[in-house]
Write a structure and sequence with these properties.
By secondary structure, this protein is α+β, with helices and mostly antiparallel strands. 43% of the residues lie in helices and 24% in strands. 30% of the residues are buried.
Amino acid sequence: MSELIVLGYDDLAVANRAFAEVQELERSHVVTLTGLAVVSVDAEGQTHVDTASRREGQIALSATAGALWGLVLGMIILTPGIGVIGAAVGGLLGKLNQTGIDNSFRDKVRSVLEPGRAAVVIMASKLTEDRFVAAMEQYGGTVLKTSLPEEGERELAEQLAGPASKEEG
């Protein structure tokens, strides 16, 4: 089971410091990351995403895990009404609702990500909660958390991989 944690902050500078702290916690084996990003919204309402893979201390992810992280990140920060989405993405959105990332959680994330604010988005497969909380409390902020059950993650990964190819014989 993975934990999806969103730490909301009033400004990008604090979010960047919290992001660096999470990376240090991973090096200290307090958290095992599946995904990590800083999401900020500028004064004009434009969303900016800076993932760990774009910064020093890259997180090595398998293709499926990377796709799953990208999908989860996209689904929690996408605003409704962006336009018509494909059937496959619609199906994945439905799966996300079944795996614990419901509309209520996404609405809370969006409320944290108002213009001028930022958040650290963490997807962790392992977390020593007391040590994590002790390290992160110095940054304050709003904490949102939900779980993705292992079965739900597996189903999402299977949908991302597509139908199994048939062997010719």
